[in-house]
Structures are given as C-alpha cells and as structure tokens.
Design a protein that fits this description.
Blueprint lengths: L1 H10 L15 H8 L17 H6 L15 H18 L2 E6 L4 H9 L19 E8 L2 E3 L5 H16 L3 E2 L11 E3 L11
Antiparallel strand pairs: 1-2, 2-3, 2-5, 4-5
Amino acid sequence: MPLLAAWGRMAHRYDGFDHTTSHPRHPQIAALLEGEQLVPPAPLPPALFLSPDVTQASPAVAGASRDWMLLDAGFRQRLLVAYRLMREQHGFDMVLLEGYRSPQRQAELAAMGAHVTHAGPGQSYHQRGLAADSAFLIDGRVVISERDPRIAGAYELFGRVAEQVGLEWGGSWRSLKDLGHVELRPGRAPERPA
C-alpha cells in the first residue's frame, strides 16, 4: 500500500496547472491556457521547408503534415502557448515542421531507421495528434540546425517553455534526443483546464 501511495504522489509531479494547490501555478501560463483560444498562424509557403538546410536536417520533411487542425485541440492550444511564450519572452518565432502522421507516413519514417524514429505505426503520439516537431523562423528562413550554438540554446529554451505548459520535450529523452519534438502524454497534464 505505501508503494501505491508513493506512485500516486508521483503522478502529480508533472501537473502544474490543475486543481491541486500543492504545486505553484505560473500566472502567465495559467492565464494563457485558461483564457482565449489561440489561433494557428497562416500556413507558410511550402518552399520554405524545402531549403537544403531544412531537408538535410529533416530529409522527409516534404511529406510532413503542417495542418494545425489535425492536432488534438488541447495539445494544439498548449503548443500555440509555447510558441507565443517563445516569441514574447525569448524573441524566437517558431514554426510547425510536422504534426499529425498517418500510419503510412509513420511506417515510412520507421523504415528509415532508428536515427529517424523508434516508433512504428500505431506507436507514435504524432498519429494521435498529440505530438509535433518544431523549428525556428529566422530572417524569413526555417532553421533547424542543432549544430549552431544559438539554435541549440533556443531549443533548450523551447524545451523549458514546453515543459512549463505541460508538454514532454524530446530533448530530455535519454535515447534519440529530438530537440524540436514535443508531445502531450495522457495523464501527464490535464486536458484544457475548465
């Protein structure tokens, strides 16, 4: 029984925006999550995602879905809040590289090898509209390069902001670090607060 009680307490460790009073709420983030519904940005020209820098860093980006409406509504709002905070607090504009994936797309990516994804069809949060890969928009260009110290640092900021809004950041994973990836795992954070 004590083990079960300890496990129950651990489940609330990730939840900073809910009904409990044991965890402090960040007022700006709580206001954004509980306030107006943020609207996804207008689609960017597809050519921005096909530059040599982008296709080298993400070879399969041409087939990626950037349709915000295919994402889970609660996840979409959290991601939009993270993008807004990145712009307002850190001066970085973010873009959606890939959101929803069909089972066929997930199979294609899995066939490319473990350096691309460890998830096969039916195993990725992308297929449930609960994951997204993001990049930066700098001087009218989509920028992914993690080798650039400024961009690597920006991804670290993005990871902190994403975690503040209840998302799991791929840069915190032990294997296959994915700095641009965030996801909303059921039970990790509440659905959009009432």
